[in-house]
Amino acid sequence: MNIDEQIAYLTKGAVDVVRAEELKAKLERSRKTKKPLKVKVGFDPSAPDIHLGHTVLMRKMKHFQDLGHDVVFLIGDFTGLIGDPTGKSKTRPQLTREEIARNAETYKEQVFKILHPEKTIVDFNSRWLGALGSEGLVRLASRYTVARMLERDDFKKRYEAGQPIAIHEFLYPLAQAYDSVALEVDFELGGTDQLFNLLVGRDIMREYGLEAQVVLTTPLLEGLDGVEKMSKSLENYVGVTEPPQEMFGKLMSITDELMWRYYELLTDLSLKEIEALKAKGEPMEAKMQLARRIIADFHSKEAADEAQRHFDSVIRKKEVPDEIPEHRVSKGKILLSQLLLDGKLAPSRSEARRLIDQGAVSLAGERASSDREVEIAGSLVLKVGKRRFLKIVCE
Amino acid sequence: MNIDEQIAYLTKGAVDVVRAEELKAKLERSRKTKKPLKVKVGFDPSAPDIHLGHTVLMRKMKHFQDLGHDVVFLIGDFTGLIGDPTGKSKTRPQLTREEIARNAETYKEQVFKILHPEKTIVDFNSRWLGALGSEGLVRLASRYTVARMLERDDFKKRYEAGQPIAIHEFLYPLAQAYDSVALEVDFELGGTDQLFNLLVGRDIMREYGLEAQVVLTTPLLEGLDGVEKMSKSLENYVGVTEPPQEMFGKLMSITDELMWRYYELLTDLSLKEIEALKAKGEPMEAKMQLARRIIADFHSKEAADEAQRHFDSVIRKKEVPDEIPEHRVSKGKILLSQLLLDGKLAPSRSEARRLIDQGAVSLAGERASSDREVEIAGSLVLKVGKRRFLKIVCE
Question: What ipTM did this prediction achieve?
């Protein structure tokens, strides 16, 4: 790739690039000197269960690795002691050393599903922030002002609302900035909510006589609902350790619009390739391809194929499994809720009606919209939810 | 002394006592358990030249020692690295380790002129603040909020005026508070400008599960002008290492009102004794006694007597020293400025006139208010300033 192609590859899906001209200069210098650039990304060890939202950033790290650069996957075991207050309306609880160590291990197990292991330096910021000592931390804290810190959006809101900000929270962006000083990095990547902290890194690097890092932010990925940010607490996430079939099903449930967004942020396809896919006009096929790609990333190609088959047979074609229990009834009419009760698919008539009203019940492949009398003849499949089947057989 | 007398002795001249009932409880407990109380006073090693202003606090420390308690003279060699921002409109420069060590030595040389050496523990807060490490400092900083810190008067003013406050300045009151935790003190004393910091100490001690220290503040001593706070930069101070004669002269120049204030803050006399002195109606005698007391504190009783004699003979009675140079003139009239020029007491006529206009010149014990012809007969003493004498002798 030439420099312009490199820039396009690295900035695909990025929100902020501070500054683009410095990015270009660094890439050119690296090409000239054949010295790889150093990219730092910090991860807070308080959230070790990685979901697709986190992988947006990891994939961006991988893009730098694809071009031959070195990436530091920095586990903030020291800053984890502080608790990053970014975007939080309350002070985060501090983690113990033991919790941090456990969480860091979980991270490491997951990160190499995306990153190239040989180009990834896994590091812990307690190495230098611990060594900094109380005196060093004081000197670091002397390099930034209270007023500038209070300009950060969430601090400002909390301060103005009279919500407490503990003083150690001001030390977080400074400690994170000092990571860049200690590692002498060329780039720091982070989510858009990290922009302030990343820019503090530029200031502090200059205070310590270093060239400022170039800052690049990635968007916060929308969850499966397409509205809220993907997060565990909102239950709109796909965890990278979830079983392939769960992943496939969840990803098939997203809107077409969100699918293209996921293509941009969760695959290595170039914008050109994505446009080509869009132009084909086969969104269902594209969505399955997206699901297969993501499963292949976190499990294997075989697992992706298997998940596709499962989806095709059970979910998509609504086929019933080979062996399902039977329930014998007399030929004739019966109230659907009574049938559910008799077949032990509902514990009570009212619960049976609730399931019907929710649209969870189908008979002979047709969803029941309300409780009503149904005609039974021959054999029919009664289904509740996605996985409970009962074969109704006339006596 | 009974408890009430002890309280009166300890709170003589104090401004704030937080809280009086806790002070009483601690004194009672100490009497019962026969365990001395621990009193902490921090000194910033950036100002090692002690003047009488500093001794107000030291004398209060001595009062606790007089009652059998232990005093920690704490040299803030760690906090000196930070630079106490109290009352400053600008961030103080940080000191180097070398400067701090040098200043601390100077302190130690001076402090035992007032304090009882055997009841004084000289300590350095780098011992525990250094050992605290960056992690400990972060945890300490988590115990206090930005909003409460910004309530401090000088921070508030600076913040509202848009003047920068460096973040490490927020760490100062916390580090000072941690001194109280590390030493588990019963009391912290300080000037009134330290009240906020001392109260932070109470909060932080409770945060660390300790009984809160009782806080006692002493007033800021007015300088010789009786208006401004005594300070080196305002040149209204008496340094404790100044020669006895200088001290005597400076102290005799203060107003009677200020003299009683100095009696209260710079001597161990009880308020009752001071009242008795006042009732005598001999302010000049009282002022000389004050000067002698202070000189005896910082030099010796003999030095005080000698300074008194010098003052009586040279300054007060305006006597001339035994041996002074002579200048022979013809009998008759001569312009005073010409006489100064001829006698080499001024380098030029204009300089001579300037000295006369300043009131610095006297002839035969009479101050000249303007340049004029004077009659010379017999022998006369011409004096410029306080120490330059010339005997004018007619030929």
Answer: 0.71
